[in-house]
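Figure 3 (text version): structure tokens given as input.
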């Protein structure tokens, strides 16, 4: 007896939407980690931080090339995660809508 799994467009759209929210969460974690000066050394924590950096850097790097940090006195404010998240939500929402039909 064979079982055939039927995957509808709505299932694929929900999967893409979940991936979209997960990536936005990783960007948010990346922003929070950038506010922490130094984390105590722990191999598991270091691997997690490196994973978040490796996954988000290619996407955020696209926006950093176009949008330089704002200089506020001696400090700089990086707006690329904010712009990247907005673009990801808009484009991702459009793609999910098209897939959903």
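Below: residues designed for each position.
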């Amino acid at each position: 007896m064979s079982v055939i799994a039927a995957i509808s467009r709505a299932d694929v759209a929900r999967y893409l939407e979940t991936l979209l929210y997960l990536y936005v969460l990783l960007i948010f974690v990346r922003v929070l980690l950038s506010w922490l000066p130094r984390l105590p050394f722990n191999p598991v924590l270091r691997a997690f931080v490196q994973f978040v950096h490796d996954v988000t850097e290619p996407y955020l790097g696209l926006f950093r090339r176009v949008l330089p940090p704002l200089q506020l006195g001696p400090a700089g404010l990086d707006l690329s995660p904010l712009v990247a998240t907005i673009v990801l939500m808009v484009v991702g929402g459009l793609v999910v809508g098209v897939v959903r039909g």
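The chain has a mean pLDDT of 89.
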